């Protein structure tokens, strides 16, 4: 699917797939679309805060884009890490882009229940953290490599 097109999209299904960051289990809101997991960027900023891969999050209304500044601390808003969603939601491909240090990053983005959700692996590549999966650990992020 062309991630720059806005329109009817797939169903985003809630998942309680486990996520650990540097071995510590976290509680983000995760939706599965197809075979991929999608996360709110603010949840990821919250779980990476204080690590070597921390980043701040902003929004550039003129560019209709999310911004991320690696190395900067993230300021919590109180809406992060709400846990598993209650029900499936309609997902729409989003025109919103993400800019890291002023550079546009190619990423799959869906608007789900009013928030942008990004494919975890796309954010890992853009922000320089390792994403993986094991049977024992489930999804994991390692910032120590």
Sketch the topology as an H/E string, one letter per element: EEEEEHEEEEEEEHEE
Total domain units: 1
Shape: globular
The average pLDDT score comes to: 86
- Helical content stands at 10-25%
How much of the sequence is in beta strands? over 45%
- Give me the side-by-side strand order of the main sheet: 1-4-5-12-11-8
- Whole-Å distance between the termini? 32 Å
- Spans of at least 5 consecutive residues whose pLDDT stays below 50 are 1-7
**How many helical stretches?**
2
Seen as an oligomer or otherwise, the chain set is: single chain
Based on secondary structure, the structural category is mainly beta
Task: Provide an overview of this structure.
It is a single chain. Helices cover 11% and strands 46% of the residues. The chain is mostly beta strands.
